[in-house]
Amino acid sequence: MQQAIVTIPKATLYESLIRKNHCLVGQNVSDELLSGWLLTVTECQGDFLKVTTHYGYSGWLRTSDVHKISPEEYGLWNIRSGSLLLLTQRLTDVLAAPKVQAPIVTTLFMGSTVIPCGSRKDGWQKIQLADGSMGYVPAIALAASSSLTDSQTELRSDIINYALSYLGTQYRWGGKTHEGIDCSGLTFMSYFMCGILIYRDAAIKSGYPVHEIPRSQIKPADLLYFPDHVALYLGNNKYIHATGNLNSYGCVINSLNSQDMDYRADLAESLYAVGSVFSAP
Predict the structure, then answer these.
(1) Which member of 178, 194, 241, 251 is catalytic?
(2) What stretch of H or E contains 274?
(3) What local confidence, expressed as pLDDT, does residue 149 receive?
């Protein structure tokens, strides 16, 4: 099997391929992958590659969106290596020189991974992108991919803060960015930014760190599961989620309390599970 890396700011993953006008095209968007994310290629058809992501999700990507890499390069770009940096702001312009007036090389989304080149200087960090190009970003827009806090309280707070950064973002099926995001994209990215890989879809799946807990034990940053939907609990009966419901569209906050103005009965009455990555105290 061949390893590959996403080389554009955002690549679309499709569930399947269909033939249209004698050409293969992607069908049914299932996910978005960001620059610097690793893949395993399992099949090639026309201009598409069948891939499995580093978090176990599979689908079809355009060949032009990725670059095949050697095992050595794969090790260098492995997020577990500890040598990578994550972009932590909604959008970050990568500039051709360390000054705000410099030309923009590209613009990357929060969660993209890059390699630092040398030390930070005067508030700037030179970086290498997955396509091999170089550029500069404000050092404040970066965090180490392995920078996990030891405090459960701080980790829960960090997860919530990343989720809140998407507040007001439009709903987009399969989305994972501040251009547009769906329910499991929101929960996945909120945990991913804190170094935790949870399942991409709205379900508790064996082999991933989320396990079911009694509703009575719920705490902020735990997950709420509804039929075909997932949300992140904020505390005090409030939760944040990305919804395509036109009555509360986009990334919004709603309530489980029927006395609140932002109560959604359809969700509150269909809540079937609460999940957590945290061990009981």
Answers:
(1) 241
(2) strand 273-276
(3) 60
Q: Greatest CA separation found in the chain?
A: 59
Nearest to 107 by CA among 118, 115, 96: 96
Three-state SS at 189: helix
Q: How far apart are CA 120 and CA 122, in angstroms?
A: 7
Phi and psi based region of residue 21 (left: phi greater than 0; alpha: psi -120 to 50; beta: remaining)? left
User: Cβ distance 110 to 194 under 8 Å?
Assistant: no
Q: Closest by alpha carbon to 178, among 112, 110, 253, 244?
A: 110
Identified catalytic residue from 44, 54, 178, 229: 229
Check whether 42 has a pLDDT greater than 80.
yes
Instruction: Choose the catalytic residue: 183, 194, 211, 251.
Output: 183
- Cβ–Cβ under 8 Å, residues 148 and 159: no
Entry field: residues in the chain = 281
Active site residue 241: yes
CB 241 within 8 A of CB 183: yes
Q: Residue 250: left (phi > 0), alpha (psi -120 to 50), or beta? A: left
In the predicted structure, residue 4 carries a pLDDT above the cut 90: yes
Residues 127/138, Cβ–Cβ less than 8 Å = no
